[in-house]
Amino acid sequence: MNAFGLAPLLLILPIIGVLFNGIVGRYFLDADRSTGEKWSGWFGTAMAVGTFIVSVLIFFSLGANDHHAEIVHLFNWFNIPSGNFTIPWAMQLDTLSSVMTLVVTGVGSLIHIYAIGYMHGDRDFHRFFTYLNLFLFFMLILVTGSSYLMLFVGWEGVGLCSFLLIGFWFDKPKGEGILNGDAARKAFVANRVGDFAMILGMILTFWAFGSMEYEVVFESALDLYTTTETVFIAGIEFTIPQVLTGITVLFLIGATGKSAQIPLFMWLPDAMAGPTPVSALIHAATMVTSGIYLIVRSNVLFEIVRDSGHQLFGIVSAPDLVAIAGAVTAVYAGLVAFTQFDIKKVLAYSTVSQLGFMIAAVGMGAYVAGMFHLVTHAFFKALLFMASGSVIHGMEHGHHHLHEHSHGDDHEEDDFDPQDMRFMGGLREKMPVTFWVYIIGSLALAGIFPFAGFWSKDEILAHSAYGLGVGEATPVFTFVRWMLTIGAFCTAFYMTRQIKMTFFGEGRHEAVKHVPESSPLMTRPLAFLAFLSLMGGALNIPYLTGGGGEEASTPVGMTASVLAAEEDKGLNLAFEHWLEHSIQAFTLEEDFENVVGPNGEHFFTHVPHTPTSLQYDIAISSTLIAVAAILIGWYVVFRVWPRSKEDPDPISQWPVVGFVWTFFQGLPLDTLYMTGIVKNIFNPLARFSDVVDWNFWHNFVHNNLIRDSFVALADFLATVLDPKGVDGIVNGVGQTARNLAEALRRPQTGNTGNYALSLFLGVALLVAFFVFAS
Amino acid sequence: MQVTIEWYIALSTILFTIGALGVLVRRNAIIIFMSVELMLNSANLLLVAFAQQLADAHGQVLVFFVMTVAAAEVAIGLALIVVIFRTKNTIDIGEINLLKG
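Structure tokens for the assembled complex are given below, as produced in the milestone run.
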């Protein structure tokens, strides 16, 4: 008894929701606003909850199936028997995709419920839920597809939904921030760059291994690597590490686009122009983690590159490049988050920073830690975004209230921005539920014991400090460790700043006095997510006997059977135990050819991950750093700030640091892109393209070649062929008939004598004929 | 002097030629009509002459048919001429040219 047969429902249910809201939603809304909203919102939510139930059933089925992956074949996409070329449309249900589907559908369901409250009264209520369900559909294709091609279908689909949802309020007039349409286009274009690399990576994969199915690719990659065979690409011989370095670096670029890492992260902060449920679902919890999912899914390829020691251009190996990209992003985004005043921008840079943590983790081979952080981050970042949405909603209501009672006296209309934290302050009394869940989310994000973020962040830091994934800490690991420590400090610091600005002190705008608490539809999902943020760490509480790095990577006296017995204790390492069935850790042994995996079909050994031990030194030091950041922020830096909305950030007033602050507030990388790439490269390219487009294509090809020759042809037809040819034939027929008739008219004189004469002549002729012929 | 068949043929030919010329050159409808009768009767004469010559009664029988048809023709033809005269007040065929194309 298993529920794998229900897997197609994961895709069918959201599509039903899309069709329902897309086709009849408008009529329901037009007929009756409040009933229409109920139908539209709850139908979409029901579909999301339905997929969540299916995900849970699949989760239990996997448990009952000894965690073995199940591939549900739906149909063949391409099938060319003569070329022996088949691309199936199949769903790979394993422990990794199960984790992703649970997060996507679980957090997704909560956000659907929240959105019913948040989007209340919006003109295009049904359109919002159509897109939200469409997003679920594509995201589930992404995480359940059994091949890179399936993944890419979902990858592009969620990009589309992201575009549609960022630009949801495309007709909103220009206000403080970026236009919705511009933000949507920016996200789309930035993602195109990553997606292009992704396509190249997939082509290279197919070229090298003749397939895009995960299992086939991984097996043949391992097989070719261990037998040191080479592959020919475009007629050139490559070794497997060389090919895989290319593939993994291209995948990394793809992941930087989707997961908003340096160098392609600029789109994510601007994506916050979209509705807040979208920021929570797509741009914090799910879509932006697909880059991490991609790397975790391709872990075999990354590990082969790491094992081979092959380095890109002899400088850095592909997995190390991943780790460095993540670590640098984590610090950069953390520093920028200091300088933002928009409540959602802070969270957006925080998301970029946390995604950097995950990317760094998977780059170090700490796949479980990365996935663990992905899950806990989905909980608390969705919580924070939704809570910030609640704040924004409250501020808008307060401002609306103020406006209604000011009798047209709108002296403060122009500069009010419901998302600007400088206008807030003192909201903790106005919105108690939102305040408390915000505190929980922030503590989880800052990594304070015992919240979820503590466990997952600690696991990443422990891996970086002791190299748990690969046995030893290389210099790259040390670099990553210190970068992430700085990132963790930043995290705690900017969250302190944000909470101080938003919830404490005096209200700095009249609107604050009229802010109501949000409706239960919005606060109940918040409370639920707050619970998950509090307890999420229990998924993978580390093994409690560790102490030092060496001990942890090779637990003393632990043979495989003891290890298995430890794992069977249950809750300990539940997540690691669960994921190890998908993250195909392998060792390359001397007698490699003789090793057969547990399913009998793998060419590599399937060893359990080294259990993560709680590294007391790391755990304590990182907690201390976070606590120190909070205390410094609270009692020193932001003790009296902000007194009014014009009060500048205290850090910006410090002698040297203030300069750095201003530097980061100017978004240095964005500026670098604008001046360095957009101005100096793209704009000349655009002008060049314009010349090509206008002078060559438009003037020469279109005007001269196509239009003029067409005109000449038309001219010939109109002045020569038609009057002389067609008309000639038609008129000629008539004219001939006329001429003939004119000729025949002549003998008809009407004179009887003439007729008689012709009669006689005819007779005479006939007589003559018969006389002389015979 | 023996009157042989050649005489008859000659007389018949002369009569036919006079009739034909009358049809072609005269303008009075009555005269043309008479000329037609002349041609018919020249043919009759020839039929009788050859019947006598060949001692065969078939030719003489045929003459009666021709005379019958000619009588009918005269009846219709004169009636037509009378009607034409009443409408156009002339029987000059030069004036009667309604079929002119």
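The domain at 27-93 of chain B is CATH 1.10.287.3510 (Helix Hairpins). Residues 4 and 53 of chain B are 9 Å apart (CA to CA). Further analysis is deferred to the final report.
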